Amino acid sequence: MSKVCLNIPGNAAEAAAFYAKAFGAEPPALMTYSQMPPGTGDIPAGMGPLIMHGNVKTFAGDIMLADNASLENEGTNTASAGCSWTRRRRRAEPG
After folding, report:
1. Model confidence over 37-86: pLDDT tens digits?
2. Total-model pTM
3. How many independent structural domains does the chain possess?
4. What range defines the domain where residue 6 resides?
């Protein structure tokens, strides 16, 4: 299974919905910074509605997304990405 991680400049919810539709997946699971449990830290000003963690489960693996406020504040339209995958071991043939 593969896992792709995307840091997006302020529109992770929109991107998650796009990827869910493109891959025929269930609606994405999204958590905003304002939904963090109390006592886990201060939320910087303006970050409350941004996506802290998003996940789209596809047939090939997970697409994980988050809003990156530093990218949004720079006024750029860039995103960063990472990828990992696991390889399943084949069972030895009897014999």
Report:
1. 888 778 877 888 999 999 999 998 899 999 986 644 555 445 555 555 55
2. 0.72
3. 1
4. 2-35+49-74
Measured from the Cβ of residue 56, the count of other Cβ atoms closer than 10 Å reads 26
Residue 82 domain-assigned? no
Task: Annotate 58-92 with three-state secondary structure.
Answer: ECCEEEEEEECHHHHHCCCCCCEEEEEECCCCCCC
Taking alpha carbons only, the member of 4, 49, 15, 52 closest to residue 31 is: 52
Stretch 20-46: mean pLDDT = 89
**CATH code for the domain in which residue 7 is found:** 3.30.720
| Assigned domain for 44 exists | no
Task: Take residue 88 and report the two structure tokens written for it.
Answer: 């399943």
Report which DSSP code applies to 33: G
Look at residue 17 and give its three-state secondary structure: helix
